[in-house]
Amino acid sequence: MKPAILNLYLDDSGTRHPSRKPGKKPAHGYDWFALGGVLVREEDEEGARRLHAAFVEKWGVTAPLHSSEIRSQNEGFFWLRDKTDEEQAAFYEDLYGLMRDAPVIGIACVIDRPGYNARYAAQYLENRWMLCKTAFSVVVERAAKFAIGQGQRLRVMPEKCNKTEDAALKAYYAELRTDGLPFDTKNSGKYAPLTTEQLKTTLYDLRFKAKSSPMAQLADLYLWPVCMGGYNAGNRPYRRLRDDGKLIECILDDADHATLATKYSCFEGVDRKA
Questions:
Q1: C-alpha dist (Å) from residue 45 to 5, 8, 9, 50, 51
Q2: Looking at the domain assignment, is residue 55 inside a domain?
Q3: What distance in Å separates the CA atoms of residue 34 and residue 230, rounded to the nearest whole number?
Q4: Number of domains in the chain
Q5: pLDDT of 111-169, one tens digit each?
Q6: For residue 154, is it within any domain?
Q7: b/e for 200-214, b at 16 or more Cβ within 10 A?
Q8: Which end of the chain is more exposed for a tag (fewer CB within 10 A), N or C?
Q9: Spatial distance between the Cα atoms of 96 and 222, rounded to a whole number of angstroms
Q10: For 269, phi and psi rounded to 5 degrees?
Q11: Is 0.85 topped by the overall pTM?
Q12: Whole domain around residue 157: which residue ranges?
């Protein structure tokens, strides 16, 4: 009998190398690396895909729903610049309606790069991990805990990137199943980490998805506001998702936030705006 499956769709955001310059500073001024997206029960995916199809048909969208292109009205969404203010507002409201109504929950691990370097640069010099190793391990383990609580197994579905970065995620996934979490047990004990056996039993599969995947696009749409929420809790898309109960912390008991909710790592030096 096939087990009940919870799917974790992942996208990435930011520069994964801890010491590499991030390039042109984004308008928001923050510097993060994140892996995250959405959790969805396998049996609920068809409903999410129908909502996605209805949205793209209504607006005649031919490009993948890519958050940065939509926000900047560039590339596949340059046509938005030709719309009236009222039409643009209707598009963005419909887009949020897709995110709100899709049967998904947002989750991520967001690492503040300046905070990460302040914590580890002197100790590890140039031997620091790529940030994707930390982020992948954290978000997958937290999603696995949530799956266990729901009586499900977890399938991990990252968006395809390139051979090098995809191979790295494959290696991190294999390591979780064979060796468990890569973190120091003394430091990570407060997060009630899963054992190697629990991870091996819960992690069901790893599959990469193309940008054309509606679920991968939902992961992309969710990740940016979740990242912004770590720096500015008043960010409108983040606040709306939170108020509508669409983030994992919204459905957890307060006692479980530290071990299951989105992880904002190395944020000690961040002055989070309310």
A1: 11, 11, 11, 9, 10
A2: no
A3: 11
A4: 1
A5: 998 898 888 765 655 555 678 999 999 999 999 999 999 999 999 999 999 999 999 99
A6: yes
A7: eebbbebebbeeebb
A8: N
A9: 10
A10: -90, 5
A11: yes
A12: 5-50+102-265
